[in-house]
Amino acid sequence: MNQVRRDVFQAISDPTRREIIGLLSRRTLNLNNVADHFTISRPAVAKHIRILTECGLVTVQTRGRETFCQADLKGLKEVSDWANTYQQFWQDKLDALERFLDEDLPDENL
Amino acid sequence: MNQVRRDVFQAISDPTRREIIGLLSRRTLNLNNVADHFTISRPAVAKHIRILTECGLVTVQTRGRETFCQADLKGLKEVSDWANTYQQFWQDKLDALERFLDEDLPDENL
DNA sequence: TATAAATGAAACCAAACGGTTTCCAAAAAA
DNA sequence: TTTTTTGGAAACCGTTTGGTTTCATTTATA
Predict the structure, then answer these.
(1) Domain segments of chain A as ranges
(2) pLDDT value at position A92?
(3) Nucleotides, chain C, CB distance < 7 Å
(4) CATH 3.40.630.30 fits B8-105, yes or no
(5) Where in the numbering of this chain does the HTH arsR-type domain appear (chains A, B) (predicted)?
(6) What pLDDT score does B91 carry?
(7) 20 to 30 A Cα–Cα from A33, which one of A18, A46, B61, B85?
């Protein structure tokens, strides 16, 4: 029962789970509503939802016979922060420097 | 031989690969130099490097008997952009709104 | 109350993953 | 010219992943 606290990077590595995140970011849906957006089976979607809840990106709330799934994407800040650590790598200024180093310096300087 | 053009989200899902990215973001290293930072075997590291090259985050350059691995992290922009799509979810203002909706509205409004 | 809807849970499966050890080839150094 | 260094490649292995089908249970609805 102990929440495994799964890694958020691993959770978002699957394209289906990223799609689910996109869906739930717009509105809360029950399991079948989520599954309706995919060709895979409902149990498969349920497993994806469970993985997303294990890392806190989704919370579920049972009401009657339905399980409502709600996005809680604060955990994506970790991903954003990590990627932004390397922001310099995709800035135009650095691209220019990179080109300069690659093309204009003699090989011996590597 | 055909470059599979692996998904960058999947590539960064492994913590060892994220560490390799961190290493190579500071300086170019050959394979053994990279492997020295880990307890896993050199072939295991080589496999991680290959995965990183398949999605363009690392480029390799053979010189003599050495394989130099260089970070090219422009591909992380895709990750940053995707995560930032949901930036609203971790902003303090929205947190306050969320608390308001969760606690101050009657359940019937769900 | 009988039926339909929504979901959890279990058993199963093939493929991918992350790792290993072993061996070989090429390049550099002694 | 031996010997060492560097790393590619192959074979193998246990676990995880992402999917399935089937069945049981609970809750609404006719």
Answers:
(1) 8-109
(2) 72
(3) 5-11, 17-22, 26-28
(4) no
(5) 1-91
(6) 84
(7) B85
Question: Strand runs (DSSP E) across chain A, as ranges?
Answer: 29-30, 58-63, 66-71
Residues A77 and B90: beta-carbon distance below 8 Å: yes
Instruction: State how far residue B41 is from chain A, nearest Cα, in angstroms.
Output: 23
- B25 contact partners, CB below 8 Å, separation of at least 6: A85, A86, A89, B71, B73
Please check the confidence at residue A9 and state whether its pLDDT lies above 60. Answer: yes
Supply A22's token pair: 């996109």
Class of domain A8-109: mainly alpha
Q: Which residues of B touch A72 (CB under 8 A)?
A: 89
Q: What is the pLDDT of residues A58-99, one digit of tens each?
A: 999 999 999 999 999 999 999 999 999 999 999 876 666 666
Helix orientation angle between A15-26 and A42-54, rounded to the nearest 10 degrees? 80
Within 8 A of B83 by CB-CB distance, chain A residues are 76-77, 79-80, 83
